[in-house]
Specification:
- The complex is a heterodimer of chains A (348) and B (101).
- With 348 residues, chain A is of the alpha+beta class.
- In chain A, 58% of the residues lie in helices and 13% in strands.
- Chain B has one domain.
- The chains are: A alpha+beta (348), B mainly alpha (101).
């Protein structure tokens, strides 16, 4: 009977203390609320646990806990308040008893301090018990699942993007190799010169056929003859191998000495198709500038001189657009190969 | 020969000494001279050619031939070329002998 009355008072008015005690006990069993854990040291709990005076209380607390869960309201509740009034007097009397029974120092003081915490942990305990919401801790199964899903999604997305990017680069690089529309050097341009027959020609007269242009001068000791022989041989070889007609052109960079007759005699010896071009100083300067040709007179014997110049053959397509240049390092076969290759690629 | 090269711009004179035949003759004498140089390389070069090239007395005759056949500027040009080639050879040879030091 006494037990019953005690239970009732606990149930109604001194629920705060009960909560606190219950919290203690629950903590031992569940250890779910960190805030309460921090506050209460383990030895205290053990001490509390071993107190025989509260063994009955503990037993009551279990039952009380269940009833509390069902209520979910701590201090303010309609069903609680109705019974409150009747039990107030008995509660006051028993509260004194409870106080005396408790000899633990932390019982009195921490109650007020941790009441709020106790309530909080009570709440969390309650919700954790039901298992529906996940306010127990920062990490729960659901959040973990979300994290994994997001991570996997991100990885897949970036992987796909990277593959796409690499493919793009590959396509771009292969495209560059094949297409002639890469962008060419700005070599070539309009010119007006006189050919070895004395006829005035412009660059338009060379449209429609491939041309291989060499800049030199007739008074060249060894290099120009060598190059022109190479050019002539390559022209023949290309004709033989691929049946392509290439027009060889020789443009003089020594307008002072290379007259039309001089040029005619000169080119005659190399190849019947070789066209020699010359002009006055201005015209030569213009064409040399268009083709980026370096040439400079080197003063030697006073009247006689040599002309230092770049040793390059320019391959121009039927539209008189620059295609490729060949230097001194190409021999006859390499030159022929190179020209054939360029012509074939152009036709594609 | 130098006078031959002087001509006004409107002249119809053709310089035959730069055409194929003359060129070939020039090359022949040039090669002969340089061969002589190679052959007599162990002899002390005392004669002066051009652009710093020296040659031994034994090759004097071929030198004369050479200078007759080719234009002056061409002679100089070839001599310069020869000197450069020799220098490179010397450099390479020296390097090989110095390896291991």
């Amino acid at each position: 009977m006494a037990m019953a009355s005690v239970r009732n008072t606990y149930f109604r008015c001194i629920h705060r203390n009960v909560l606190y005690y219950a919290q203690h006990h629950w903590k031992l069993t569940k250890l779910s609320s960190p805030s309460v854990q921090l506050f209460h040291a383990a030895p205290d709990l053990l001490q509390f646990e071993s107190d025989t005076a509260f063994k009955s209380v503990n037993g009551l607390v279990y039952g009380y806990r269940l009833s509390m869960l069902s209520r979910r309201q701590l201090c303010i509740g309609s069903n609680v308040s109705s019974e409150n009034q009747s039990m107030k007097k008995s509660a006051e009397s028993t509260s004194g008893q409870v106080e005396k029974k408790e000899d633990l120092p932390q019982a009195g003081e921490p109650t007020e301090n941790t009441s709020g915490q106790g309530e909080k942990s009570e709440d969390s305990h309650q919700t954790g018990e039901t298992g529906k919401s996940v306010r127990g801790g920062p990490v729960s199964w659901l959040s973990f699942l979300l994290l994994v899903t997001t991570g996997a999604g991100l990885i897949f997305y970036y992987d796909k993007e990277k593959k796409r990017h690499i493919e793009e680069i590959n396509n771009a690089s292969t495209a560059v190799k094949q297409g002639p529309s890469v962008g060419k050097a700005a070599i070539g341009g309009p010119f007006k010169l006189v050919n070895h027959d004395g006829k005035s020609v412009t660059d338009k007269d060379f449209l429609g056929k491939w041309t291989l242009i060499y800049f030199g001068f007739t008074h060249c000791p060894d290099i120009c003859p060598e190059e022109l022989l190479k050019l002539a041989a390559a022209i023949d070889k290309i004709k033989e191998k691929a049946g392509i007609e290439i027009v060889p052109v020789f443009i003089s960079v020594d307008p002072e000495r290379d007259t039309v007759e001089q040029v005619r005699e000169y080119v005659k010896e190399f190849h019947p198709n070789l066209i020699g071009l010359t002009g006055n100083a201005d015209e030569i300067r213009e064409v040399a500038r268009a083709y980026r040709v370096y040439y400079m007179k080197t003063e030697d014997e006073g009247s006689d001189y040599l002309v230092d110049h770049s040793i390059i053959m320019y391959l121009m397509d039927p539209g008189m657009g620059f295609t490729k240049f060949f230097g001194k390092n190409y021999d006859v076969d390499q030159l022929a190969e190179g020209v054939i290759k360029e012509v074939k690629e152009y036709k594609k | 020969m130098a006078l031959e090269t002087l001509y006004p711009r409107n002249s119809n004179r053709i310089h035959t000494d730069v055409l194929a035949e003359a060129r070939q003759a020039c090359y022949k004498t040039r090669d002969a001279f340089y061969a002589c140089l190679e052959k007599e390389s162990h002899k002390k070069p005392t004669e002066i050619a051009s652009v710093g090239l020296l040659y031994p007395v034994e090759c004097k005759k071929s030198r004369a031939e050479y200078e007759k056949q080719c234009r002056r500027t061409w002679v100089k040009h070839f001599d310069r070329q020869y000197c450069a080639k020799k220098r490179v050879h010397r450099l390479l040879d020296n390097d090989e002998s110095r390896r291991g030091i």
